[in-house]
Specification:
Keywords (chain A): DNA-binding, Sigma factor, Transcription, Transcription regulation
Order of helices and strands of chain A: HHHHHHHH
Shape of chain B: elongated
Number of domains of chain B: 4
Strand content of chain B: 25-35%
Distance between the termini of chain A: 38 Å
Oligomer: heterodimer
InterPro entries (chain A): RNA_pol_sigma-70-like, RNA_pol_sigma-70_dom, RNA_pol_sigma-E_actinobac, RNA_pol_sigma70_r2, RNA_pol_sigma70_r4_t2, RNA_pol_sigma_r2, RNA_pol_sigma_r3/r4-like, WH-like_DNA-bd_sf
Largest interface: A-B, 75 and 65 residues
Helix content of chain B: 25-40%
Number of helices of chain B: 16
CATH class of the largest domain in chain B: Alpha Beta
Family (chain A): Belongs to the sigma-70 factor family. ECF subfamily.
CATH class of the largest domain in chain A: Mainly Alpha
CATH architecture of the largest domain in chain B: 3-Layer(aba) Sandwich
Distance between the termini of chain B: 59 Å
CATH topology of the largest domain in chain B: Protein Transport Mog1p, Chain A
CATH superfamily of the largest domain in chain A: Winged helix-like DNA-binding domain superfamily/Winged helix DNA-binding domain
Number of domains of chain A: 2
Protein name (chain A): RNA polymerase sigma24 factor
Helix content of chain A: over 70%
Largest sheet of chain B: 7 strands, antiparallel
Radius of gyration of chain B: 31 Å
CATH topology of the largest domain in chain A: Arc Repressor Mutant, subunit A
Number of strands of chain B: 18
Strand content of chain A: under 5%
Pfam families (chain A): Sigma70_r2, Sigma70_r4_2
Radius of gyration of chain A: 16 Å
Shape of chain A: globular
Structural class of chain A: mainly alpha
Largest sheet of chain A: none
């Protein structure tokens, strides 16, 4: 439980980025992740999960991708965020722009971006989490970055330096 | 700040802005659901797992690659700049009649000189995005040259989909030029505005335009060893801590009583590595006993292959601390018996001791059996007496980055390639690759320092995906030798493996071998051809 308490906030933030701001879906995903973690721990009792936080993150990404695979036809690009109350630390326009840009990416590309640049995971770790090859991750990552750069361009630099 | 870093920072800020105060409810619900799942799966209780969940720890995951990002940022700062404005102006000159709009000059990523994009409209079939980058080619990032990749949403490009064609070329100096063309002005458009990317038939001309070469010629040449760990100076010239006669003397001291003649040895600075050899006679006839020392990557695939104990007679003994010793006996024919013990320590020290029942490997047997048993050879190989000589040798690079470190290879290459020659190598079993060697009698290194140049480049007009590593070098006062290793069985064949079949450390060691200036050795090579 301690683990859950310590990591849920982070998982939820990851999930919000993965779902490009759909907080309700994010909560569902985190709940599903915690459920799976619970079950996994029961099964792995006695065997060590080396890195529970990373493991949970992997479970979350896989849950997200499974969810997307299941109902990809339902995917809508959110023009406005359901819970768009921005914190003062975050320029609301760029926040929206970034989430909107993330929403433009295919789900797998978004997962790569979140894992690599939010989670700071290596290409290999990302590939493992997504059940794919390192080359595929590189391709997706290049493509996603090019796309994000085209979408956000210099506004991101201003946002970050602000 | 490179775009990735900005993105990471922006993600952190946006991520942190999400309200997560409903956590507790989430956890409770999840735990409840988890319990249900577990109950469904099993009939026995697993309440203990919840405790384990807490015990197994939190926060073990440290996302600490920030220093790395800092390093990348500083690399970007050091990279020279090519003005985006000038590049866009050059494009205006290069492009056929049409309109150019939406010019963008992007912040540079590590290793990039410039990154611009613009939308080009030829006025006939629609507009499309053109993306252009130049920078330092880094094979680790996939800059291997001649990269033509396409993307479509489904992989099958059609008129309705947005797709692009990326073309990259790496110059012999190690810069890359990359042009990517799209079939829409905006990659995120739902539909392509034209069936093919704009300027599709013209990409190669644009990529190879002399203007870019002129631009790149002004810049410093990238480090040809980019992507490689810095070379241990001992690779060029290890210190002489044990002399050749010293090696033979150490070997003698480890042998049982007997007559020793014809001691011979290579010192620790020798390009082939230190070795000792004596003719040992226990009373039944003088037989050759040899020892050779190496430093290898103990986990490297080629080391494992080398010490895997091929013959059935081979016995492997694992020692405490991760070391191992192999011993085998071979009977290659004509009555010759060869016994060999190979010791590899956990740290990569390798000692090979060989004894024959003849005065040499290719000589006629003078006795039935070699004068030493396998057990005796093993104890010679494991002797701490070799520590001093091994300590003089440079640590082998990791095979994953440095390529095979199989120790006898430089000698073998020289022997088999001769002064000028080629052979197809597939030591690691990953695919055949051509090795070519040339000794340039007309060029000598007149400086007092060893000279070494390494190029990693795609093969101009070669097969699909073919790259080569060209290593040219000479010892002080020595002639220049060039070894070229391909990742294909021929330059015009398609690549069979990702990197050439021989690693750079070996290529360097081969090129810098003192034997290229040893007239006796060269004559023996000539005679064999």
């Amino acid at each position: 439980m301690e683990f859950a308490a310590a990591r849920t906030g982070h998982l939820l933030r990851s999930a919000c980025l993965l779902t490009s701001g759909d907080v309700h879906l994010a909560e569902d995903l985190v709940q599903e992740t915690l459920r799976r973690m619970y079950v996994a721990w029961g099964r792995r009792l006695g065997r060590r999960i080396d890195n529970p936080a990373a493991y949970a993150q992997t479970v979350l990404v896989r849950a997200f991708l499974t969810h997307r695979g299941r109902r990809s036809s339902d995917e809508v690009v959110l023009s406005e965020l359901p819970d768009g109350q921005a914190l003062p630390a975050c320029d609301p326009d760029t926040r929206l722009a970034l989430l909107h840009a993330l929403a433009q990416l295919p789900p797998k590309d978004r997962a790569v971006v979140v894992l690599r640049y939010w989670e700071d995971r290596s290409v290999e770790e990302t590939a493992h989490a997504m059940n794919t090859s390192a080359a595929a991750v590189r391709t997706r990552s290049t493509r996603a970055l090019a796309r994000l750069r085209a979408l956000l361009g210099p506004s991101l630099a201003e946002f970050v330096s602000a | 700040m490179p775009f990735e870093d900005e993105l990471g920072e922006a993600l952190r800020r946006v991520g942190d802005s999400f309200d997560t105060d409903r956590q507790e409810k989430l956890i409770m619900t999840a735990t409840e659901r988890g319990r249900h799942s577990v109950r469904r799966r099993r009939t026995w209780a697993v309440a203990a797992s919840v405790i384990a969940l807490g015990v197994l720890g939190t926060g073990a995951y440290a996302s600490g690659i920030l220093p790395d990002l800092d390093r990348e940022a500083s690399v970007a700062d050091e990279t020279p700049v090519v003005g985006g404005e000038r590049v866009l102006a050059t494009f205006e000159k290069l492009l056929p009649d049409g309109t150019i709009s939406r010019r963008k000059d992007f912040p540079r990523k590590p290793g990039e000189y410039v990154h611009v994009s613009f939308v080009y409209d030829d006025g006939r079939s629609g507009a499309g995005l053109v993306d252009f980058r130049m920078g330092v080619a880094d094979p680790r990032r996939g800059d291997t040259g001649r990269d033509t990749s396409r993307s479509g949403r489904t992989g099958k490009a059609g008129a309705a989909e947005v797709w692009h064609d990326r073309n990259q070329e790496v110059t012999p100096d190690g810069h890359f030029i990359e042009v990517t063309v799209w079939n829409a002005p905006d990659p995120k458009s739902p539909r392509g505005s034209r069936p093919e990317p704009v300027l599709w038939g013209d990409v190669t001309r644009l990529m190879r335009a002399g203007e870019w070469r002129k631009e790149l010629d002004r810049l410093p040449k990238p480090d040809p060893l980019l992507g490689e760990k810095p070379m241990d100076p001992a690779w060029v010239r290890p210190p002489v801590t044990v002399t050749g006669p010293g090696m033979a003397a150490t070997l003698t001291s480890l042998l049982p009583k007997g007559t020793i003649t014809a001691p011979d040895g290579r010192d620790t600075s020798h390009p082939l590595g230190p070795a000792g050899s004596v003719l040992y006679d226990d009373g039944e006839g003088g037989a050759r006993v040899e020892v050779a020392l190496y430093r290898v990557d103990p986990d490297g695939p080629s080391t494992q292959q080398f010490t895997r104990c091929y013959p059935r007679a081979c016995k492997r003994q694992e020692l405490p601390g991760g070391s191992a010793v192999d011993a085998y006996e071979a009977r290659p024919g004509k009555g010759l018996v060869e016994r060999k013990a190979t010791y590899v320590s956990a740290g990569g020290d390798m000692v090979e001791v060989t004894a024959w029942n003849a005065p040499g490997e290719k000589r006629r047997p003078v006795r039935d059996e070699p004068p030493l048993t396998l057990e005796q050879l093993k104890s010679v190989a494991m002797s701490p007496a070799w520590k001093k000589a091994l300590g003089a040798l440079p640590a082998a690079p990791e095979e994953e980055t440095g390529g095979p470190t199989r120790p006898t290879a430089p000698y073998r290459y020289m022997d088999e390639l001769g002064i000028e020659g080629k052979r197809i190598e597939d030591e690691d079993g990953l695919g055949p690759g051509l090795i070519e060697l040339r000794r340039d009698e007309s060029r000598r290194n007149t400086t007092s320092e060893p000279q070494l140049a390494v190029r990693q480049e795609p093969v101009e007009g070669g097969g699909k995906g073919v790259v080569r590593w060209v290593v040219t070098g000479a010892r002080p006062g020595g002639v220049y030798v060039t070894v070229t290793a391909y990742n294909a069985p021929a330059p015009d064949a398609d690549a069979t493996r990702t990197t050439p079949a021989v690693g750079l450390p070996l290529l360097k060691a081969t090129v810098l071998s003192g034997l290229w200036n040893d007239e006796t050795y060269l004559r023996s090579l000539e005679a064999r051809r």
